[in-house]
Amino acid sequence: MEESAASQGEKKVVAVVGGGLVGALNACFFAKRGFQVEVFETREDIRKAKVVRGRSINLALSHRGRQALKHVGMEQKIVSKGIPMHARMIHSLSGKQSPIPYGRKGQYILSVDRANLNKELLTEADTYPNTKLNFDHKLQNWSAETGLMTFGRPDGSQTEVQADLIVGCDGAFSAVRKQFLRHSRFNYSQTYIPHGYMELTIPAQNGEFAMKPNYLHIWPRNTFMMIALPNLDKTFTCTLFMPFEEFEKITTGDEVIEFFQKYFPDAIPLIGADALKRDYFRLPAQAMVSVKCSPYHIGDKCVLMGDAAHAVVPFYGQGMNAGFEDCIVFDEIMNQFNEDFSAVLPEYTRVRVPDDHAIADLAMYNYVEMRAHVNSKWFIFRKRVDNLLHFLMPKTIIPLYTMVTFTRTRYHVAVERWHWQDRVINRGLLLGAVGVVFGGSYLLIKNPPNINKLVVPAEKIWNKLAALITP
Amino acid sequence: MEESAASQGEKKVVAVVGGGLVGALNACFFAKRGFQVEVFETREDIRKAKVVRGRSINLALSHRGRQALKHVGMEQKIVSKGIPMHARMIHSLSGKQSPIPYGRKGQYILSVDRANLNKELLTEADTYPNTKLNFDHKLQNWSAETGLMTFGRPDGSQTEVQADLIVGCDGAFSAVRKQFLRHSRFNYSQTYIPHGYMELTIPAQNGEFAMKPNYLHIWPRNTFMMIALPNLDKTFTCTLFMPFEEFEKITTGDEVIEFFQKYFPDAIPLIGADALKRDYFRLPAQAMVSVKCSPYHIGDKCVLMGDAAHAVVPFYGQGMNAGFEDCIVFDEIMNQFNEDFSAVLPEYTRVRVPDDHAIADLAMYNYVEMRAHVNSKWFIFRKRVDNLLHFLMPKTIIPLYTMVTFTRTRYHVAVERWHWQDRVINRGLLLGAVGVVFGGSYLLIKNPPNINKLVVPAEKIWNKLAALITP
């Protein structure tokens, strides 16, 4: 292997803007390469903060995220504090629970605590002697030409810092990205979905989990839904997703209970009626935004990663995983181009944009699938067919969820493959159905029954066929 | 009719930010209603400026734009200085010219001079005693809560102005819109297409037009194209649309001529080889952006109109027409809600967003159609079928282009209707083709020919059928 450019001469300065999940992990990646790393975070050090606000409490960690953690030696530490979830657990209106596995036996995603993960990553970044963490530094301005940044401090003063590379990991409302909007031919979109979310808690019951812990619990109700992820302290964090206008319709505690009695009756005793009446009004429902942009870099001095480059809606559980994978992809390209930023940055844009756009679209697709399709018989039937085919031909037919969650298949390749598989499987099912109809017809002609008894079944068969063609 | 709110009490102040086409026209609309209108334009007064730079020279004015001009008594004045274009004139590689009419006999679009139109509109706005035009006023900041705006002046000083309504008509890179991005749940996208454009001139020959004047000349060449619109001074303005990377490949005068010889040989003598070699390098190719956003208003004090709300790519000739129609739509809603901004603004967003998004999508669709489909036999065949059906059933089948260009059918309704018509016509054509095949088969069975002679025609028929199903 060639010696890295950084180790040949003076160590270059990499400024990571944002000390959240992707920023802290990225600091480890750059530190491992020997760069002089400076992390700048607007907020105080969350390891010392009393109250951490505003973001979801737990997250689903899967293969891509784990691979990135592994790269900096953090995988086992984080996994040991996560709770495996092997399947979705669907709660019907009647309270019936039915599991739909995520993949094959032994495949699972992990419920991890966001705040703890962030703390662990910051502590890990701190162990590198060539890394410095700067909290209470709010980016005010920066230049893509010179790499000079100006930060505002809580006392009103300003600090100037110059870097060889600015890595914008400052989230969905990125301050680094604002500068990109002023550059010509920067493609950008931000889309708010009509749904908001609200977090509620299911406390432990007699020191134990109130529901089966190793599942991601889902209450799909078509236009809205609730999910629940387990926490280490034996509580569950519930997230209610609903159109803002529905949230606004509920204005009293009694209306909350009425609403839950209608749609989530089994959740009332779990959350507790009094807690529900109180917690529903604790915080207003939060907005969810999907951000896409391109390119991810300006010149050879600035690059966007994580939510700053591609905020996604949370319905595929891939936001953090995609951000963590960004770090691996960038690292791989750094190897390929011997840390020459002028070559690495354009290549990173070329390689990563189609994948991030694919996962953003998939998350938006799952926004409908999770709350609506999960209820449909066709959906469950197709999941079973896919899983069976995957079992029979593990290299030919791989369910989309498996490719996204349990492999590092490039997101856009997974989507292309999914469309191909879908066509092949639907055609196979159609052919099978046609075979059954023809076979049946043959038998019927051999032994003709009363014609009047035939009309209804024929219509049913036709409906099934029609459903197969247009699922 | 009810008396307007403005005439009941003190005249409200409407600040129109931007003195371009839509801003100047809008000033007339608000002035006609009796508001105290202030127009703020960053640039100097173009009526006094020596060189007007940066935007296309001529534009296609059609029904929607004319209706808006009519509303303020400007239609005849502008139409008299426009040049009617009755059809597209397609230039093939061999130099053959074939017209494709825009609509029925007597229907045409008008080539108008942008700078002259802008000057006439500013002069018209100036005739209202309740209107004041402020040039050299660059918007620096404004508040959606108070309606207070700060403008920078060329001497470095600042002016503050307070308004009851701020109307952002400041174009694709709107300064007013920037503030919207800071508000929660504002959906926004800006998409640059890979093509750039460059303007060239075909001079008059012996004091006459060098080509037939009453056409929009098109040289479609699949991945790129050139168009030419006539001017009053008997010149044509050509616009070459091409991917930026193709523009960049051409670096010398000889390469320009080589390129034109390959793709636009008939244009070289028209433009003149020497002028072509020189003018190609006069200005770099310009970018084209498509901007969509929603909502168009904040509270009851600010609204976006024209390119500021919906910049579209120029391939449907509807950018200005859609912007002018904005003024009529807003005016209609002002009547409906008796000038109550708190009701008018949300209604304007509700009504206008789907239409503007539809025309933005159509313009993007035509970006492909104009340079590629126009060459295909199927496209020309379908245009003929559509026009014939429109002639036979003028109220049932209306070509999309006609609805968009020669009516005020809401853009999104035109698109829905187009999809419906397309399905109906394609099915009709398919049925017709199937009938021909069956009829032919019947005749063949009656009089069986040599089977070997049948294979090739059968394949051809099959290919035609396949093309009908998937045009």
Automatic annotation (TrEMBL), chains A, B:
Give the chief site where it resides.
Answer: mitochondrion
Instruction: Please state the pathway this protein functions in, per its UniProt record.
Output: Cofactor biosynthesis; NAD(+) biosynthesis; quinolinate from L-kynurenine: step 1/3
Q: List where the protein spans the membrane.
A: 388-407, 428-445
**Reaction(s) catalyzed by this protein?**
L-kynurenine + NADPH + O2 + H(+) = 3-hydroxy-L-kynurenine + NADP(+) + H2O
Say if the entry is tagged with keyword Nucleus. no
Keywords in alphabetical order, please: FAD, Flavoprotein, Membrane, Mitochondrion, Mitochondrion outer membrane, Monooxygenase, NADP, Oxidoreductase, Pyridine nucleotide biosynthesis, Transmembrane, Transmembrane helix
Q: What is this protein called?
A: Kynurenine 3-monooxygenase
What's the source species' lineage? Eukaryota, Metazoa, Chordata, Craniata, Vertebrata
